[in-house]
Specification:
Blueprint: H1 2-13, H2 23-44, H3 49-54, H4 58-63, H5 70-77, H6 83-88, H7 107-112, H8 118-130, H9 139-155
Helix pairs in contact: 8-9
Length: about 160
C-alpha cells in the first residue's frame, strides 16, 4: 500500500527536488533579523536618551569605529563627570554649570552653549563649516560626519575646571 501511494504521488507531483540553501544565506538572514529586532528595542526604550541622540541607528553604530576614552564615553552617554548626572545621585549639591549661563550642566549644554567652552566650540564650528557642514547640527551628525572633529573638541576640554 505504501509503495502504491508513493508511486501515485510521484506520478502526480513529479520528482521532488530539494533546493539546498547555503548556510551563509541563513546566517545573513538571522543577522538581519537580529539587527532589526535590536533596532526596534533601541528605538522603543525610554532609557539612553543621550546615547540615542548620538547613535540613533544600531547598524551605523556597529559600523562606526569609535574611540574609547572616559571623556568621550561621558559625553555620548551623559553618564560620568557631568554635574547634572552627579546631582541625580547626590554626589554634588548643584546640577548647574559653573559658567555664566547658570544652566544645568548636561552634555548638550557643554556642546552648544557653555561659555567656558567658547574657544573650543568656535574651533569645532570653524572646522565643520570648512568641511561644508552647518551649525548647529544633531548629535548624530557629530558621529556620522564629523567624528574626528568632535573627538578633537572633547580632547581639547579641560574637564577639571568643569
Amino acid at each position: 500500500m505504501v509503495d502504491k501511494l508513493a508511486k501515485e504521488a510521484a506520478l502526480k507531483y513529479g520528482p521532488i527536488a530539494y533546493a539546498k540553501i547555503p548556510r551563509e544565506v541563513f546566517t545573513t538572514r538571522e543577522k538581519e533579523n537580529g539587527l532589526n529586532m535590536w533596532q526596534k528595542q533601541w528605538k522603543n526604550t525610554e532609557k539612553g536618551a543621550v546615547t540615542k541622540a548620538f547613535f540613533p541607528s544600531v547598524l551605523s553604530r556597529l559600523q562606526t569605529e569609535i574611540p574609547i576614552f572616559p571623556e568621550f564615553t561621558t559625553r555620548v552617554t551623559g553618564h560620568g563627570k557631568i554635574r547634572s548626572y552627579l546631582h541625580r545621585f547626590g554626589f554634588t549639591n548643584n546640577p548647574k554649570c559653573p559658567c555664566d549661563d547658570r544652566e544645568d550642566q548636561t552634555t548638550q549644554h557643554l556642546i552648544v552653549q557653555c561659555t567656558k567652552l567658547t574657544v573650543q566650540r568656535n574651533d569645532l564650528i570653524k572646522q565643520i563649516k570648512q568641511s561644508g557642514g552647518t551649525w548647529p547640527m544633531t548629535n548624530a551628525k557629530f558621529i556620522s560626519d564629523y567624528l574626528p572633529n568632535f573627538v578633537k573638541f572633547i580632547k581639547s576640554i579641560d574637564f577639571i575646571d568643569l
